[in-house]
Amino acid sequence: PVLYSYFRSSCSWRVRIALALKGIPYELVPVNLIKDGGQQFSAEFKALNPMQQVPALKIDGITLSQSLAIINYLEETHPNPRLLPQDPKKRAQVRMIADHIVSGIQPLQNLSVLKQMGEKKMEWAQNCITSGFQALEQILQHTAGHYCVGDEVSVADLCLVPQVANAERFKVDMSPYPTITRINKALLELEAFKISHPSRQPDTPAELRA
Fold this sequence. Notes:
The protein is an alpha+beta fold. It contains 9 helices and 4 strands; from the N terminus they run βαβαββααααααα. β1, α1 and β2 form a beta-alpha-beta unit. The radius of gyration is 17 Å and the shape is globular. The two termini are 26 Å apart.
């Protein structure tokens, strides 16, 4: 497999965690979203992913984009360890939390949106994350065990950790979200989350390396 990734992209990080958890070796090709006006806009990358976004994964003779589509494919082709619970109710909760982050928070504070916001981008990002986290904290109080849903790492956790990193980057006050904070801390102690971390990627700038 070949993963087209950017060290700071939360969507790419989700996929890196899934690959690490499932023990799938891959080649990483960095796509710098800032440099050269954004390498994702090159004709070469557009041919690979017409949406001009990372991540993209070449695997088993196909090219996939969209982090959840990639993770679902990995789940179906490499079922162990599983990232979706067997219980239908828990599985629905995992998908709900993942969608909450992937559709309801992350796109609103994505690079392409922030570019449109000019001087208000920090305030905009903080507002989007805060409103999303207020709801997420409430949801997790009903679903969480050790992790987002019960005590097994799931797709929901793969979405949570990169989003908390975004919140910290945009200086969001995390004190109102003790459940999110507790789960995030527990997940960051797991090896798959450590090795996939933005501070430990081949394209991480020297000043941001762990």
